[in-house]
């Protein structure tokens, strides 16, 4: 067993022995790596206490992981699709057996309430279940040459070794959304989780190996120098595919690194989602949907409603209803019973969100939520609803990534559509109206990859997740997701007699 796997096994064992109550927190110290310059310290964002350490790998570690995953590729791709499917189904069973431990791990390193962490585990496991089923449905086609004399046959083959770079905000779901289709397609992978939340990924991969995934088919690498690691791996001819979820800026760098070798890429990048509420919307549905679209994961989501545009006729009632929902939120540690809003990820996020709010207030926005005391420790931001936000404020063009909602008002529907599309991003959007004609007309004119109509949660394993413009290329989830890890091959069969 490799040293990294010993670290992971130690972590899993320690976690399973630990309780979930708040008074157990001081005992949940997981040493995946020794103290010193060779380790990354993982902190609980609700307390700033250390909850684990993972290896801080350098070039030697990256190359070892890459070599191991590359060597495992031929044997994994040679397995039948039924074998790969059966192993992934076993992964579903094993991960669900460890649902509580996985959820606690997510909460400890990312901060969200444990109920949301449990929901993330279920969502993440659904990706593995989905691709276990997609694995045995390989696409292909047989057609006659229109000129006669031959047959055109298309098949799918695994693209090869994949570099999977996952973000911190959904540490399990964003990892399995990449790992599952890669394995189902017959690819092996090197996974780089965010250094803020790597414990979940290590534990997920350890459990998947326990379920039957070959140990080197998925290797996890953690580093405090991700730019150097990605540059090294992207230049390696053994890496044939990169999948990245994160900022548009980093995505652009990775695309540049992929260009010299014409590497297959899929990118889920930044968002600036508009949420449009027309004055014929069902008020309760619109408030519930906006709250879900804004506050899922504490607002730390690329598809969070960033700009809430409300028509004048319904605006006052909508703001009152949404403010009531915000004021009812309970801040606290995610493992505390009753908590509905945990911390943001780190101190930088606290400062950035505060600066956005101050700028909006300076430009005439009105804070409509009640003041509240924040916990004495950790990285907490009060849930805030700003009304009458100037569309030129920074908060209208910058991902908030926190529990702050920005409401702007409009009178003319064309004005709302123009504001919604006035962004280089195009990941998600939301529309609330009781008019079917208006719903479809608006959805079709919005420049985004996804639109929720009278719904605030659009993520679904059966749907193709992705954006347009600078919000990325490619899709994750659905049947389209496995195609990102496959090459189309064309065979020409002579049929002359």
Which fold name corresponds to the CATH topology of the largest domain? Aldehyde Dehydrogenase, Chain A, domain 1
In helices, the fraction of residues equals 40-55%
CATH homology-level superfamily of the largest domain:
Aldehyde Dehydrogenase, Chain A, domain 1
| CATH domain class of the largest domain | Alpha Beta
Shape category: globular
> Count the strands?
19
How large is the radius of gyration? 23 Å
Strand order of the largest sheet: 13-14-15-12-11-16-17
The share of residues in extended strands comes to 15-25%
Write structural notes for this entry.
It is a single chain. This protein is of the alpha/beta class. The chain has 2 domains: 3-269 and 473-488, 3-Layer(aba) Sandwich (Aldehyde Dehydrogenase, Chain A, domain 1); 273-460, Aldehyde Dehydrogenase, Chain A, domain 2. The protein is 40% helix and 19% strand. The protein has 15 helices and 19 strands. It has helices spanning 3-17, 59-78, 81-97, 99-110, 114-134, 173-185, 199-210, 226-234, 248-258, 283-295, 312-327, 347-362, 413-421, 436-445, 478-483; strands at residues 30-31, 39-43, 50-55, 141-144, 150-158, 161-165, 189-192, 218-220, 239-245, 264-268, 273-277, 305-311, 366-367, 384-387, 404-410, 428-432, 450-453, 472-473, 486-494. It has a 7-stranded mixed sheet with strand order 13-14-15-12-11-16-17, with helices on both faces. The protein has a 6-stranded mixed sheet with strand order 8-7-6-9-10-18, sandwiched between helices. α3 packs antiparallel against α6, α4 (99-110) crosses α5 and α10 (283-295) crosses α11. The N and C termini lie far apart (58 Å).
């Amino acid at each position: 067993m490799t040293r990294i796997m010993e670290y992971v096994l130690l972590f899993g064992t320690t976690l399973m022995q630990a309780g979930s109550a708040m008074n157990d927190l001081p005992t949940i110290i997981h040493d995946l790596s020794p103290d010193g310059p060779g380790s990354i310290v993982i902190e609980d964002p609700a307390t700033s206490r250390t909850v684990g350490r993972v290896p801080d790998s350098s070039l030697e570690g990256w190359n070892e992981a890459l070599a191991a995953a590359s060597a495992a590729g031929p044997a994994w791709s040679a397995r039948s699709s039924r074998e790969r499917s059966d192993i992934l189904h076993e992964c579903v069973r094993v991960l669900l057996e460890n649902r509580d431990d996985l959820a606690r791990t997510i909460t400890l390193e990312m901060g969200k309430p444990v109920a949301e962490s449990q929901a993330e585990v279920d969502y993440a496991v659904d990706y593995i279940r989905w691709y276990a089923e997609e694995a045995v449905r390989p696409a292909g086609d047989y057609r006659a040459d229109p000129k006669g004399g031959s047959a055109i046959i298309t098949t799918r083959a695994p693209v090869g070794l994949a570099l999977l770079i996952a973000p911190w905000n959904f540490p399990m779901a964003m990892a399995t959304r990449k790992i599952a289709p890669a394995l189902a397609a017959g690819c092996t992978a090197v996974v780089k989780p965010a250094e803020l939340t790597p414990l979940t990924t290590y534990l997920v991969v350890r459990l998947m190996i326990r379920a039957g995934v070959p140990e080197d088919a998925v290797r996890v690498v953690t580093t405090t120098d991700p730019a150097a690691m990605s540059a090294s791996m992207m230049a390696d001819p053994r890496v044939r595919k990169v999948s990245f979820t994160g900022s548009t800026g980093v995505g652009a760098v990775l695309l540049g690194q992929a260009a010299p070798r014409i590497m297959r890429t899929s990118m889920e990048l930044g968002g600036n989602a508009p949420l449009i509420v027309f004055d014929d919307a069902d008020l309760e549905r619109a408030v519930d949907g906006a709250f879900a679209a804004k506050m899922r994961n504490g607002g730390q989501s690329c598809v969070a409603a960033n700009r809430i545009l409300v028509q004048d006729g319904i605006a006052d009632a909508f703001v009152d209803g949404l403010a009531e929902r915000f004021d009812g939120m309970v801040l606290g540690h995610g493992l505390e019973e009753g908590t509905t809003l945990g911390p943001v990820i780190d101190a930088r996020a606290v400062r950035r969100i505060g600066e956005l709010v101050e700028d909006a207030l300076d430009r005439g926005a009105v804070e409509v939520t009640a003041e509240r005391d924040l916990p004495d420790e950790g990285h907490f931001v009060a849930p805030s609803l700003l009304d009458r936000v100037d569309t030129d404020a920074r908060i209208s063009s910058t991902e908030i990534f926190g529990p702050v909602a920005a409401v702007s008002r409009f009178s003319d529907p064309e004005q709302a559509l123009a504001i919604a599309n006035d962004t280089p991003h195009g990941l998600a959007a939301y529309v609330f109206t009781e008019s079917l004609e208006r719903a479809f007309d608006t959805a079709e004119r919005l420049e985004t990859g996804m639109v929720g109509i009278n719904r605030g949660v659009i993520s679904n394993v059966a749907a193709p997740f992705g954006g347009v413009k600078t919000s990325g290329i490619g899709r994750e989830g659905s049947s389209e997701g496995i195609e990102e890890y496959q090459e189309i091959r064309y065979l020409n069969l002579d049929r002359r007699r």
